[in-house]
Amino acid sequence: MRTVYVFNGPNLSRLGRREPDIYGAETFDDLAALCRRTGKELGLEVDVRQTDDESELVSWLHEAADGSIPVVLNPAAFTHYSYALRDAIAQRTAPLIEVHISNPAAREEFRHTSVVAAVASGTIAGFGLRSYELALRAIAEETR
Ligand code: DQA
Prior knowledge:
Elements: E1 2-8, H1 20-23, H2 28-42, E2 44-50, H3 54-67, E3 71-74, H4 83-89, E4 96-100, E5 122-125, H5 130-142
Helix pairs in contact: 2-5, 3-4
1,3,4-trihydroxy-5-OXO-cyclohexanecarboxylic acid binds at residues 11, 74, 76-77, 79, 100-102, 104, 111.
């Protein structure tokens, strides 16, 4: 079975408790279950991880690049300023889709910039947890 990584950046472990008016009532465990369920339907083995640590996220991206493993990535706040993350994504050897639960373009000005978008295969934002499901479907089609 093909493996896909789903990597999540800072504060996403707090889903359900974190600004539910923006990010919804579902928890990180609900998100992980949704990703695994979608993966099963698509014949993908989905490995879901979360970290608040930029260097850990960079090393996971190196691991994906070395193994040619596709990635669904919610970089969270790193989206807006982490050139280290951008440089790690630029080394990718398989599709990588940037996802967001909310629509950053419709929020505060600082969220309008993504320093990673240009090195991702594409971006899906604003569909709640469904953004991840749509990204997994796109990866399944891209890697068929
Ligand atoms: C987010 C949007 C970011 O601006 C924010 O910093 C997050 C979550 C989203 O999924 O909507 O932490 O990536």
